[in-house]
Amino acid sequence: MRDKYNYRVLYIKFCVGLVAVLLVGQLINLQLIKNYRQQADDNAFFRKTIYAPRGLIYDRNGKLLVFNQPIFDIEITFKVWNELQKSDTPIDTTLFCKTLNISKESFKTRLINIKDKAKNPGYSSLIPQRILTQLAPSDAAVLQEVLWKFPGVLIVDRTMRQYTTPNAAHALGSIGEVSKERIAQEPSIYKQGDYIGVSGVEKQYEGELRGKNGMEIFLRDVKGKIQSRYKNGIEDISPVGGKTLKLTIDIALQAYGESLMANKVGSIVCIEPATGEILALVSSPTFDPSSLVGRQRSKNYSKLLNDPFKPLLDRPLMARYPPGSTFKTVNALVFEHEEIVNVNTRYPCHAGFSVGSFRLRCHIHSSPLDLPNSIASSCNAYYCYALRTMLDNKKYGNIRNAFQEWEKGIVSFGFGHKLGVDFPNENRGSIPNTAVYDKKYGKGRWKSLNVVSIAIGQGEIISTPIQLANLAATIANRGFWIRPHVLKEMEGTPQDTAYTNKRYTVVEPEYFDPVVQGMQWAVNGGGSGSTARIARIDDIIVCGKTGTAENPHGRDHSIFMAFAPKDNPKIAIAIVVENAGFGATWAAPIVSLMIEKYIKGEISEKRKWMEENMKKGNLMPTKAY
Q1: What is the fold of 251-287+314-487+497-616?
Q2: What is the pLDDT of residues 46-105, one digit of tens each?
Q3: Which residues contact 431 (CB under 8 A, 6 or more apart)?
């Protein structure tokens, strides 16, 4: 009985194995048929790609920023080239190289690399291979005159990005040759040698800007030479150009900001509070976007990449800093919401905050201060007292619960996570949670005094410049913010509701008035102190807050955030000037000039001296870190 059972098992295994072999054989046969058909198809037809022009880019006022200019690639069909080289009338390679202004050695190297399937997996002697790229129209015209002498050689029309301005390099972004990985992901869209957005708007809206390539189909003879259009072009596909984009950027304001930040390291972010539209994204040091197009791209990119001051770093979205005293505004709002303080709450300050041997210094000012004056005078002690009052308050049950309520309030203003800006590579910053302190001090072992530095925007608090600008916009709006974005309009496409919906903080609108009052006094005077009077503008009520971010590598970073006018604000702005010291020294004047330029269109004569000083100021550190 067992032998019969074993026989049946062996028989079933044999049948299963036979079926598997037959299926594998059939799959191999089908693949071979497919390959043969493809090869026959390649022998009979030549498909010429017609490249779609990328979409144009305009600023918010309709000024053209990015357009296309014609360039040309040179391609060779090796089946035709090789057969002619073996004939009695071979192609004159010397003349060909001379026409293209390249050496014969360079040309031979290119041929070897193209035929190397490890470097060029898509190589086929029947498919035109790109041997030279981005020829200027004048160089292509020279070849065109003698093209009849070089059968198998094609001149392929393409376009290259051109810029009307040397500004906004990080915002606009650049294009580069598509990677092998991206080709593998989307083989139906990209081929080797194609270009793709690699940064900024060009990368973020690649799918919309690239358009859709077309195709012309030609018949070949047995030697691979092109003979005629297939079906008189009935099956040809016309290219579809990329969509036109209108950005929220005001290029005049952008250029002005870049001029003020010349010879400085840092960034400026300007937002229209009511809409979340980004008016300017200044990253310094910067570069001319036209340096990253054409045949010099690789050389120039390498130079920028190796610059110790990192001009390729998109500082508005990627740089990370402690927000310093600008963070007192959001702390004040959370403390109000939690009923820890109100407009009349006062705390003392004796040149700082002291508990036992612990001391956190503060500058000299009146004492005690109420809430608006604590903002205007930027009192450190006030916020240390208020934070400890909240964290030690018995109504929360314990410090962990109190801290989680504080964290929830702070995060609602956009800190600690990505804002969702329509740009690649946005940084999230950092807001600590209880787990951070459990790990640092031990679970249940940390006290309010251990974390008191977060009261003044230091310690574990990390923000990005765009988060600070968003905070200014949120205060300007008295409690809501719209996700910052750079796309204003796209041809034939409605605006994404993600960039139109209001996002409300946990803090009620009525609590914003004391903070706004304090920010007004900080610039315009009227309270017990004024830390940013230099930012005052005639006929415009500017509300602002200074900050100083600690820098372990040198002088502290100068920070200032503001919005204006106080009522119906048109602009919210944040700036970080690295290695510049106090916020009122460099950051506040630059912000003030940006506001005046945007709202009034020009700088008043009485403030021209400030403009000149800011433009001429050189704060570049002696070495990078």
Answers
A1: Beta-lactamase (3.40.710)
A2: 777 888 999 999 999 999 999 999 989 888 888 778 877 777 778 888 898 898 888 888
A3: 407, 410, 411, 415, 416, 460, 461
